[in-house]
Design goal:
eight-stranded antiparallel beta barrel, mainly beta, 1 helix, 147 residues, 63% strand, elongated
């Protein structure tokens, strides 16, 4: 039994020795949950995974630094924006972000992306019956500040 537990203990100990950083940011755009919001991220060496909560929406996603100076990052993003009277828009997107001070440092983050959006409108106020569904691809931008 000890022979089975020892390798697992070593593997978990080596993972916990890597320092994962938490990063908080606020901004405007889909990566920040919609109109304006906050983002909490778990950052590893060249990647980060985030969840955002904003005015009228929420979002999850990830980014991976692709350049040697770590200013350029590619990623993905998915979420929901709540609209008036129970209507909503779901989206999934591919993103590009430029980190002005670098991926690992505090500072401004500028981004863009292309996404697939599904907008559902209800027949009456707060009804779950969908009367109209629009599907489209759109471009968007994000501007935020990492603390």
């Amino acid at each position: 039994m000890l022979k089975a537990i020892f390798p697992l203990t070593i593997a978990l100990a080596s993972y916990s020795s890597h320092a994962d950083d938490f990063e908080f940011s606020s901004g405007i755009g889909l990566q920040y949950g919609g109109i304006v919001g906050v983002q909490a991220a778990l950052k590893q060496e060249n990647s980060k995974y985030f969840a955002s909560l904003g005015l009228y929406g929420l979002s999850v996603g990830g980014q991976y630094a692709v350049s040697e100076n770590t200013k350029h990052a590619l990623g993905f993003n998915a979420g929901r924006m709540l609209l008036i009277f129970g209507d909503y828009t779901d989206y999934v997107a591919l993103t590009y972000n430029y980190h002005v001070s670098g991926f690992h440092n505090s500072g401004w983050e500028l981004g863009t992306g292309v996404g697939y959006f599904v907008n559902e409108e209800s027949s009456t106020i707060f009804s779950s019956k969908v009367i109209e569904e629009e599907k489209e691809a759109n471009l968007f931008i994000n501007i935020g500040y990492k603390f």
